[in-house]
Specification:
Helices cover about 60% and strands about 0% of the residues. It is mainly alpha-helical. Helix 8 runs antiparallel to helix 9. Bound molecules: zinc ion (2 copies). One zinc ion (ZN) binds next to helix 6. One of its GO terms (cellular component) is endomembrane system.
Amino acid sequence: MAALSKIPYNCYEIGHTWDPSCVHSAFDITRGALEVSFKIYAPLYLIAAVLRRKKKDYYLKRLLPEILWSTSFLTTNGGLYIVFFCIFRKLLGGFYSWSAGFGAALPASYIAILLERKIEICVSRCRSKDGLKGFAFSALKFIVGKEEIPSHSGTAEHISTICKQGPRHRCCKHHQDNCISYCVKGFIRMFSVGYLIQCCLKVPSAFRQMFSKPSRLPSLFYNKENFQLGAFLGSFVSIYKGTSCLLRWLRNIDDELHALIAGFLAGISMFFYKSTTISMYLFSKLVETMYFKGIEAGRFPYFPHADTVLYAVSTAICFQAAVMEVQNLRPSYWKFLLRLTKGRFALMNRQLLDVFGTQASRDFKGFVPKLDPRFTTVLPPGLPQ
Ligand SMILES: [Zn+2]
Ligand SMILES: [Zn+2]
């Protein structure tokens, strides 16, 4: 029954324990999220721009707006979460086990993703020549190669040229290679890309250590993480391409359904790389792209806003876990949330949430925030009445 009951504390006692004012706290979180997400997206877009060999014009006119759009998405998601957290407390007069995490995060993520979609649609309308051409799509095209992006149904021409170098199915669009070398080349190419990206990300810290610890310099090129990102991207591509070729051989046709199956199998490669940000992003975008391709081909029913709702629900589930049972959340996701909120997510008064029976405070070593008794409704235990 405890899971269904209400606890009467206010949002200062449970949530924003660093400041009694709801407005100030929401402002703090929004400002912090803005700063942190800018630091996340700026290098990401810069690397993507270099990889896509963008012209000078892009760096001058488009790079900064694109970074800011993505930044605004994470910022609204974070800022609105705490806004809804406080609104729900005011409406409900307390907290239920679902309202602090899932309840507040659901509308926040929904609005944030709607906003991002609106901007994305505007942007792509301004620049796109042929429909779907966002950052994610070109990233996907870069990774799996243009041969494997399903084209519109019916327009694919199956040129049956005989490949002299080895076995190649007549439906395969990789005309230069046979199926095996096509997959191997894909692996080598993306392995080196992953390896180089990770090296580049390590350069600033290596530079700092160059004078203090010169012996650490070789670790820039030779360490586990470099190989992890390489192995992830490499195996992702080779599984994807290999499955696509294999299915063409087995079924003797080219089918957009293959891309979906291949995408799901390629998701296995995420085990090589435990970065939630990159692998989940890629995977979700892949599924999304395939889903829309499937709709175009008439294979999947179209639900309006299906992806938006899906995103909002999965984010809300993560927030629910982050509030009520951090021990069950992926550590990298929790670290990301801490970083985005500048550590404030850990300041929640989780001992009060223990009544819901999810061991909310288990990993916080008895942490109790120092609250100003003038603003609390129920005095914290241990203080004189
Ligand atoms: Zn509040
Ligand atoms: Zn092939």
